Amino acid sequence: LPVASFDCVVFGATGDLTMRKLLAALYHRYRDRQFPDTSRIIAVARSALETDGFRMRAEAALRQHVSPANLDEETLAAFLALVHYRQVDALSDEGWEALVATLDERPGQVRPFYLATSPELYGPICQRLARHGGFSALSRVVLEKPIGHDLASARAINMAVGEVLPESQIFRIDHYLGKETVQNLLALRFANPIFERLWNADVIDHVQITVSEVVGAEGRVGYYDRSGALRDMVQNHMLQLLCLLAMESPISLDADAVRDEKLKVLRALRRFEPHEINSFSVRGQYVAGAAEGRPVPGYLADIGSTERSMTETFVALKAQVNSWRWAGVPFYLRTGKRLPRKMSEIVVQFRRPPFSVFPRDQHDLQPNRLLIRLQPEEGMRLEMMTKEPGPGGLHLRPTGLDISFEKTFGQRYPDAYERLLMDVVRGNPTLFMRRDEVEAAWDWVEPVLHAWAERPEAPRPYVAGSWGPTAAIAMIERDGRTWYEGI
Ligand code: BG6
User: How far is the C-alpha of 49 from the C-alpha of 95, rounded, in Å?
Assistant: First the structure.
């Protein structure tokens, strides 16, 4: 459904996220005629640029990040005409009056402010916007993850922003929630009674969530070296996936009803004691190896350092949800850079048959598994044992019931940011994180951060192009289980 006309102000407009994701997302929505021509995209950054100069950069970014099939010259020119640039310094009073004057030219517009900057600037930017009269009842502030660096800094940011805006106007984005398959988790769980009946510790043996990437830290070294995989991926994306998998049925799809249930899961996560950290977590850092068939340097070379760095580029964790539904069912999480493939996948592994009528030496009964693939090629697969065809006797083998969403629906899957940006304009916060959720997620992650900080040993090395340190394999194998290497 098309949205109302808006003035979307993007802070951090010359940065990586705007250039790679936000402009392309807005372009696609515009091309699909999802917002009116009267809208404006007001790019804001510290650089001394004019609108023409910024449009040239934006055009280059769009030519790089939008597929040629979707890039027609006429639409591109019309889209760029909606883009304006204002030079503003987040940490001084320079530029704010001119920015607010631009916004006041059209008082009735919905006003999303997208803060694609470092999180330390979220508070100062919101406070200055408030002081200069930039907020209206139609304003919404979008905060990119990570919200802060730890629980205390997340709280400070939430306080600073909360002083000038009510929670209903604050949209904390986690782009994983905008992915089609992630939303499909809600459909899978709450529109299909056959699964919901099986969704508990009686039937499920364990759950695995893997988010692997081929890319290294290149390009975002400054940010990544201060962050690491636990802050960059686990505290937000992976915990959100865990919440959607583990939560109870919400009473409706209202934003707060869904977020209340996710919050309960975060609060039910068993907290790690410092002495358990090595049994329940593994951190790794890649060394030189290969990515997609070509040699690549290690993390230290990527960040241009000759000393050691304690930043983890890989993390594996064994999480547990303390509830009746999930008691005794481990949730194994792993994520890393420079792994063999880009893949985000959830594996729900069911218990083995309690007794087998098939002779053990001839039949290795595999457990049923439900595989939920977020990317690439969004889909689901239910693995079952079936009889091999033929008259030669009863031979079993695992086969899959497959749903490929792209083949089934035959359409382009919009990028997560497209969906989420339009939700901001509509004022629908269901797929955004509430303040207490973000804080609860930090609260769970923090003991791991502390325990790691206190230990002298560096992250375990793994060769770029491998599935991470062997300790991560040992962690799950100690429980008699193995990582599933993808469909
Ligand atoms: C971002 C992280 O939030 O998610 C990046 O900061 C990561 O480090 C990215 O590469 C992965 O997103 P996606 O959509 O490509 O899986």
Answer: 12
Contact 248, 264 (CB under 8 A): yes
Helix 151-164 / helix 435-454 crossing angle, nearest 10 deg:
150
C-alpha 254 – ligand 1 centre gap (Å): 27
What's the whole-model pTM score? 0.94
Q: Which residues line ligand 1 (CB under 6 A)?
A: 213, 232, 344
What would the two tokens of residue 191 be? 């529109």
Residue nearest to atom 5 of ligand 1 (CA): 232
Q: Does 28 participate in catalysis according to the annotation?
A: no
Interval 132-179: pLDDT, tens: 999 999 999 999 999 999 999 999 999 999 999 999 999 999 999 999
Strand, helix or coil for residue 78: helix
- CA–CA dist 247, 250 (Å, integer): 8
- Strand runs labelled E in 135-221: 139-143, 170-172, 204-212
| Ligand-binding site membership of 28 (annotated) | no
Residue 21: phi, psi to the nearest 5? -120, -50
- Nearest CA owner, ligand 1 atom 8: 232
- Cα distance between residue 167 and residue 259, in whole Å: 13
Q: Residue 126: in which H helix or E strand, if any?
A: helix 122-131
- Asked if 286 and 464 count as a contact pair (C-beta separation under 8 A), the reply is yes
Beta bridge partners of 335: 211, 315
Q: Is residue 46 a known part of a binding site?
A: yes
Tell me how far the alpha carbon of residue 291 lies from the centroid of ligand 1, in angstroms. Answer: 17
Closest C-alpha among 173, 176, 144, 146 to residue 345: 176
Q: Of 323, 320, 299, nearest to 309 (Cα)?
A: 299
Condensed to tens digits (0 to 9), the pLDDT of residues 401-454 reads: 988 877 777 777 788 999 999 999 999 999 999 999 999 999 999 999 999 999
The CA distances from residue 65 to 16, 32, 459, in Å, are 12, 17, 34
Q: What is the rounded distance in angstroms from the CA atom of residue 181 to the CA atom of residue 191?
A: 14
Pairing of strands 369-375, 343-350: antiparallel
> 222: exposed, middle or buried (C-beta count within 10 Å: 0-12, 13-18, 19+)?
exposed
Check whether 213 is labelled as a binding-site residue.
yes
Q: How far apart are the first and last CA of the chain?
A: 35
**Distance of CA 144 from the midpoint of ligand 1 (Å):** 12
